[in-house]
Design a protein that fits this description.
Layout lengths: L6 H7 L2 H42 L5 H9 L8 H19 L3 H23 L3 H31 L6 H63 L1
Helix pairs in contact: 1-7, 2-6, 2-7, 3-4, 4-5, 4-7, 5-7, 6-7
Length: 228
């Protein structure tokens, strides 16, 4: 047995099916890392934007002025800004037409903000199901390659008269590489899926809290205007 065998040597000596399994796992690993990096950047940016907007929102600025400031870039809004924009826009529209029925104004405003919240959360969760899938199935794909490789090695071993460990060891080693690659793809996918999901949950909580606080402000304005 050649003690200098490398991972590349084991790959080249593997059967066609085991090679295919390894290539699939390598592709899944590369794709999952690309999504991990992209989602991490998106979620970190969302956290910064939410903090910056809430600082601006609670700075004492007039809500109408804040609405006018962000209206020019309404297509670029995300997170708390989008929830604020959709809520204030609907509030202003309903207040003009149904100002004497504040309950209807607040119901429509809340509905508009909930729609925006749902869209934001869906966008934040983009590609996370893929990471969950990679983490779930990669070990089984690798195990399939290992089982097939070991089976092939023992079938070949049965065809010779004198079997030695040196004859079967390379075949078993190359088969076990498939399991190692399955774990290599699965472990980071599972770790970052949990981490990124936790970030999405925290952001969703931030958005919901902001929505409730903003609703309280609009509620006071709607009923104050009705009493006047």
């Amino acid at each position: 047995m050649n003690s200098e065998l490398t991972i590349l040597d084991l790959f080249l000596q593997a059967s066609l099916l085991v090679k295919l399994v390894m290539l699939i796992l390598l592709g899944m690993s590369i794709a999952s890392w690309a999504m991990i990096i992209k989602r991490s950047q998106v979620l970190n940016s969302a956290e910064r934007n939410a903090a910056q907007f809430e600082d601006r929102f609670w700075s004492g600025i007039d809500l109408s002025q804040l609405y006018q400031e962000i209206q020019d870039r309404k297509e670029e809004l995300s997170g708390s800004e989008r929830i604020f924009y959709s809520g204030f826009k609907e509030f202003a529209r309903l207040h003009r037409s149904n100002g004497r029925v504040p309950e209807a104004v607040m119901e429509g405003t809340g509905r508009a903000m909930r729609v925006s919240l749902s869209k934001e959360v869906d966008e934040l969760e983009t590609n996370l199901p893929f990471l969950a899938t990679v983490g779930s199935i990669s070990p089984y794909i690798g195990l399939f390659g290992t089982v097939w490789g070991i089976m092939t090695a023992f079938i070949a071993l049965g065809a010779v008269k004198q079997a030695t460990l040196a004859m079967v060891a390379p075949g078993i080693a190359e088969a076990l590489v498939a399991t190692a690659m399955g774990l290599f793809a699965a472990i980071p996918a599972v770790m970052f899926y949990n981490r990124l999901t936790n970030k999405v949950t925290k952001l969703e909580h931030t958005y919901v809290t902001f929505m409730e606080e903003f609703s309280s402000i609009l509620h006071r304005q709607a009923f104050a205007a009705n009493q006047e």
